[in-house]
Amino acid sequence: MSVRKLKPITPGQRFRVVNGFDTITTDKPEKSLLAPKKRSGGRNNQGRMTTRNIGGGHKQKYRIIDFKRDKQGIPATVKTIEYDPNRTAFIALVSYADGEKRYVIAQNGLKVGQVIVSGKNVAPEVGNAMYLSEIPLGTTISCIELRPDQGAVMARSAGSFAQLMARDGKYATVKLPSGETRLILLTCMATIGVVSNSDHQLLVSGKAGRSRWLGRRPRTNPVRMNPVDHPMGGGEGRSSGGHPRSRNGIPAKGFKTRSKTKASNKYIIERRKK
């Protein structure tokens, strides 16, 4: 994985840092695994704006990803590593021994021609999906299930990884990317390795128009608003705006919104870093 800094031949390219895409092997997705993706522009079924700052953007198609990895015991060969406009990580097209093709989240180091497999009695190698009960302690994992057969929900974005710390009874202790340490059932699955495209955080868009291509409309700074529009609006000249808060008055920094009676609290050993 690498990034490239462009020569400043235009103002928009002066600070632009782009992905090298040196691990991408094709720019044509598998047609059978594409689904249409409708844009709402932030409007509801009455045409009224219900979410701000959404609209426009390049037309995209959704890639159907296999988060469950439920085709167990059947080896699959990696055919391509591809870009996915719907996520920061790269995806891999795999072809199973019975001929079926699926997309999976690609891990760092996954190569075309490599054979991956999921299920029980599997070697802990990059790209293989295993049960937490069988993964060696200290292993770097990603694409983790929170409930058995739910499909991967944690550590799925570019460069994300978690670490399997311990096992006790029917639970495994996992340190998540946020810094939170929590208990997860041993019957949940995870993939070995770090999620691909770890250089994603180094990218610089270079110009405002690139955000528009991604479907993001301009966001007004709340301090610039009028008092009727936001709690931080108004004031003479450049006033600081008081404490940072949301439009409905909930403080943005240091204010805890998590319920003290939430059912999953008992599974969290250590809360995420502030």
Description:
This protein is mainly β and about 270 residues long. Helices cover about 0% and strands about 25% of the residues. The chain has one helix and 17 strands. It has one helix at about 210-215, and strands at about 5, 15-20, 35, 60-65, 75-80, 90-95, 100-105, 115, 130, 140, 145, 150-155, 160-170, 170-175, 180-185, 190, 270. The strands form five sheets. Strands 9-16-10-13-14-15-17 form a seven-stranded antiparallel beta sheet, with no helix packed on it. The longest helix is centred in the last third of the chain and has 5 residues, at about 210-215. The two termini are about 30 Å apart. The model has no long low-confidence stretch (mean pLDDT about 95).
